[in-house]
Amino acid sequence: MPRANASAPVDGAELQPIIETLWAVHGPQGWWPADTPFEVMIGAILTQNTSWQNVTRAIARLKSAALDTPEAIRDSPRPRLAEAIRPSGYFNVKAERLQAFCTWYLEVGGEPALRDWSTPAIRAALLGVKGVGPETADDILLYAFHRRCFVIDAYTRRLFGRLGLVTGTAPYETLRAHFETALADRPLPVWQELHALIVAHGKATCRVRPACGACALRPQCAVGRGMDIGETAGA
DNA sequence: ACCCAGGGTCATA
DNA sequence: TATGACCATGGG
Q: What is the DSSP-derived secondary structure letter of residue A234?
């Protein structure tokens, strides 16, 4: 089985034309879709393995229930919080995660205090909160704290795995290191926009069943050129 | 009636 | 280290 050069790390020179193509096709995304940094953080937890549309419902319900501040979420009876976020799915699990997060957030002094923390310090602290894993932490760092952390999500694994630039199943930290090296000399907005563009492309084109016929990246894509990268799923 | 969605934790080997 | 079970709603 040809592995399509799958162990090669992402390279800045290879990344640039991909960014330009995605930008040309999907346009500026303006992520993260939220009004405040705190809302970004809540949304990052609510969107775990869940469509964003369901998350917007949950956030609207949090606002109507006056559960849109860290204090209110922390102090709410858990069943009441869970009911408010019901549309996001996993509502019992996520209610516990939101409260764990808000408890931590208030303990450390919120954004005013966290602004002065180094990126690795915030990241380590976030990962210490039960229910915050690497992707959620990097969402929060990139879009709420404006730090240059690259988010590895299912869309990123799928797209770049198919492109043949990474092994899609590689450990999170391996992929993050590859992308962060490739983006090292790029400014924050490029990091934010690239992740958003990857999601847009993953929804519109590089879906589970890919629409290669309509894909602008096809010429530079291993799957688009008909290579087998080990996705057995195709029926 | 499926499959999928901007994951994470915990138990098991 | 690496799988698998579990969590649960709403759209295609």
A: -
C-alpha to C-alpha distance for A12 and A190, rounded to whole angstroms: 12
Query: How confident is the model over A30-59, as pLDDT tens digits?
Result: 889 898 999 999 999 999 999 999 999 999
pLDDT at A228: 80
The residue among A155, A139, A143, A136 whose CA lies nearest residue A188 is A143
Residue A88 DSSP symbol: G
As a whole number of angstroms, the distance between CA A21 and CA A99 comes to 40
pLDDT, position A224: 85
Using C1' positions and the CA of A86, the closest nucleotide is C9
All residues at 6 or more sequence positions from A58 whose CB lies less than 8 Å from its CB, including other chains: A46, A84, A85, A86, A87, A88
For the record, the structure tokens of A107 come out as 């303990």
* Cα A25 from chain centre: 20
Global pTM reads 0.94
A 119-158, residues with C-beta < 7 Å of strand C: none
Distance, CA of A90 to C1' of B11, in Å: 20
A65 CA, B4 C1': Å apart? 29
The closest of A14, A6, A63, A65 to A38, measured between CA atoms, is: A63
Contact of A188 with A146, CB cutoff 8 Å: yes
